[in-house]
Amino acid sequence: MTAGPMSPDALEAALRAIGAERYHNLHPFHRRLHGGDLNRGQVQAWALNRYYYQSRIPAKDASLLARLPTADLRRAWRSRLEDHDGTAPGTGGVARWLKLAEGVGLERAYVESTAGILAGTRFAVDAYVALVRERSILEAIASSLTELFSPTIIAERVSGMLAHYSFVTPETLAYFTPRLTQAPRDADFALGYVREHAVTVEQQEAVLAALRFKCDVLWSQLDALHFAYVEPGFIPPGAFVPDDRR
Questions:
Q1: Which of 113, 130, 97, 104 is closest to 214 using CA atoms?
Q2: pTM (2 decimals)?
């Protein structure tokens, strides 16, 4: 006999278990980043590649916003665009990430060009944008639930990087301060939506798969960084080469 759908509480517990097992704070590259075990060039490679992810977040949110069926939903989701794109030039999360990249020694124009990012980064991020654009609204919203786990990684990242890297300042990491309130707000909304609308076995399986996919997207980006810049340290043609490797 096939088991029926989970209760909302059981579904939430299953979603949180995915984060406990698969969130990218567990990746060896992040362990090195937070523990001070990377050199400046490796930190630059992380900042450069992560910019592509940050810059595509507004695109994936805009694609979902266009599909949302009610004004209430669109108003709720619109704040994400403002958080990342800002309300004026030089504001918002994407602009703050560019300041982070400049703070670790990268040139702004080079970062914005995305010319030096790894193919693994581009493929993973583009796959995430495609999922949000092409799959159901429920799956698209569920894929954002990695934000349930982000306050923990932000706290680890900020404290670890400030403690271990002399070239990193609080101003460099200013991107993260607003995220400590934005991410929980957004996660609460998305979690409430999923708890209310994922009511069949098929829907619940779909939202669990969407969150696993998003965790894989984040993990894959770090796999690419680790392979290119840590071990075995083979930087593919066309990718960013730190000064100490030139």
A1: 130
A2: 0.95
pLDDT tens, position by position, 76-92 = 999 999 999 999 999 99
Query: Model confidence over 13-50: pLDDT tens digits?
Result: 999 999 999 999 999 999 999 999 999 999 999 999 99
DSSP 165: -
What lies within 8 Å, CB to CB, of 99 at 6+ separation is: 171, 172, 174, 175
Helices (H), the chain: 8-22, 28-35, 40-65, 71-85, 93-103, 108-113, 119-134, 137-142, 150-164, 176-197, 201-229
Q: Which domains, from first to last, does the chain contain?
A: 8-228 (1.20.910.10)
Under DSSP, the state recorded for 245 is G
* Torsion from C-alpha of 29, 31, 33, 38, nearest 10 degrees: -70
